[in-house]
């Protein structure tokens, strides 16, 4: 009986203990659930608050930077405007519609624009203020190419009052263009009046000096020719050398006189006639053949044997003589010099190509300047003591007298000098026969 009551007590105790444990476990889970819910709400609230604060801080930082950059950009823009306005050369700028947007005082003075600051408020077209089609063409050329360019021209200001015309002074202008963003074009304007006047004075002085040298040189030559047969044969070589130097100086003086007459606007009378180009080339080569034979240099003529050009024969003879003489001097031994003649559209194109050292790239813009020589780059032979630097300058002037163009480059195959001449062609009927043969061996 006691054993029975012991077992009943143990069962009741187990049931009570289990009930207590289940009650405590349920209460613990409920408390943890409520705590996690409150924690998630708190963390979420804090995260949203922190994100908003971070976004606001970033926004404020960008706002501060934008304002700072805006102020800096405004300061830079104002400084740039001040620099442009104070520049010693003219500057204008047009937008994509060719409306004038920037014009400094120097450009307004050069182009004859009155009250340019007030006029810019209306954004006028370029041609409305500056009647220069050369300038308008420069803008279009720069915009189409996407790169800057340069043009020289004589600007003739428009007459302000046609009823009471006042003579306006023309002035030479050089314009440099630059391609800006959004179709805008900037143009720097340089007044070339002073430079042109200095060049004219220099050329006039050179011509005057050459004219004064002509008479004494003639007298010296007469004296040398008189004493030549009377000197001892052993000393006659010195008289011959003296005569050679007199001829060299006389030719230089003649070249200076020819250039001087062209510079001051005195164009010589040209005697035009129909000239067979191939025969003229052979005639020039015959004159230079003794010099060419020293190096065993030959000439090749490629072109129509019956090609006839309407030119001043003596001038074109001098032109070819200067070009071929220059090519012979700078050609290596046992090489050939090529002359190509062809008709392209309404022009006769004459090309001279040698196998020498060619022109340095930095010298190409100055090849036809008088007294310009390239001794360091183009090695001369011991037989040639160097020219006067006038041969190509005279060639250029002769081409201009014939209303043609001349261009100097380096040939891509031979590496030598490549000079191209384009002359107006009168007779458009040409033969089709093309030949290529050495003229001399």
Automatic annotation (TrEMBL):
Enzyme class: transferase
Domain Histidine kinase as annotated: residue spans: 208-427
Segments forming a coiled coil: none
One example of a Gene Ontology biological process annotation: cellular response to phosphate starvation
Pfam families: HATPase_c, HisKA, PAS_8
Keywords: Kinase, Membrane, Phosphoprotein, Transferase, Two-component regulatory system
Top-level taxonomic group: Bacteria
Catalytic activity, EC: 2.7.13.3
GO MF: phosphoprotein phosphatase activity; phosphorelay sensor kinase activity
Catalytic activity from the UniProt record: ATP + protein L-histidine = ADP + protein N-phospho-L-histidine
GO CC aspect terms: plasma membrane
PANTHER family: PHOSPHATE REGULON SENSOR PROTEIN PHOR
Record's protein name: histidine kinase
Organism: Pseudanabaena frigida
């Amino acid at each position: 009986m006691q054993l029975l009551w012991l077992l009943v007590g143990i069962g009741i105790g187990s049931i009570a203990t289990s009930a207590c444990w289940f009650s405590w476990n349920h209460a613990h889970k409920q408390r943890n659930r409520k705590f996690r819910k409150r924690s998630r709400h708190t963390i979420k609230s804090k995260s949203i608050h922190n994100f908003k604060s971070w976004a606001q801080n970033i926004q404020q930082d960008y706002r501060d930077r934008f304002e700072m950059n805006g102020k800096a950009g405004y300061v830079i823009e104002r400084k740039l405007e001040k620099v442009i306005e104070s520049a010693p050369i003219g500057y204008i700028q047009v937008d994509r519609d060719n409306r004038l947007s920037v014009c400094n005082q120097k450009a307004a003075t050069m182009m004859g624009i009155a009250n340019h600051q007030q006029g810019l408020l209306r954004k006028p077209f370029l041609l409305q203020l500056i009647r220069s089609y050369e300038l308008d063409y420069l803008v279009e050329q720069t915009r189409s190419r996407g790169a800057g360019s340069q043009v020289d021209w004589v600007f003739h200001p428009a007459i302000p009052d046609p009823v009471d015309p006042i003579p306006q002074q023309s002035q030479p202008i050089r314009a440099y263009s630059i391609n800006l963003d959004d179709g805008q074009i900037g143009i720097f304007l340089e007044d070339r009046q002073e430079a042109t006047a200095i060049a004219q004075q220099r050329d006039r002085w050179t011509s005057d000096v050459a004219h004064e040298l002509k008479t004494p040189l003639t007298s010296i030559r007469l004296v040398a020719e008189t004493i030549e047969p009377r000197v001892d044969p052993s000393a006659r070589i010195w008289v011959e050398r003296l005569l050679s130097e007199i001829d060299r100086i006389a030719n230089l003086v003649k070249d200076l006189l020819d250039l001087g007459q062209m510079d001051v606007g005195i164009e010589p009378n040209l005697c035009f006639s129909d000239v067979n180009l191939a025969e003229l080339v052979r005639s020039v080569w015959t004159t230079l053949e003794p010099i060419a034979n020293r190096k065993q240099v030959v000439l090749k003529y490629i072109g129509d044997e019956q090609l006839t050009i309407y030119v001043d024969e003596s001038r074109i003879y001098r032109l070819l003589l200067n070009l071929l003489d220059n090519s012979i001097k700078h050609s290596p031994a046992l090489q050939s010099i090529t002359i190509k003649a062809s008709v392209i559209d309404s022009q006769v194109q004459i090309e001279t190509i040698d196998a020498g050292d060619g022109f340095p790239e930095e010298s190409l813009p100055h090849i036809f300047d008088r007294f310009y020589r390239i001794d360091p780059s183009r090695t001369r032979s011991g037989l040639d003591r160097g020219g006067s630097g006038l041969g190509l300058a005279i060639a250029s002037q002769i081409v201009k007298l014939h209303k043609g163009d001349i261009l100097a480059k380096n040939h891509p195959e031979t590496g030598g000098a490549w000079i191209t001449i384009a002359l107006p062609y009168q007779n458009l009927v040409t033969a089709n026969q093309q030949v290529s043969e050495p003229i001399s061996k």
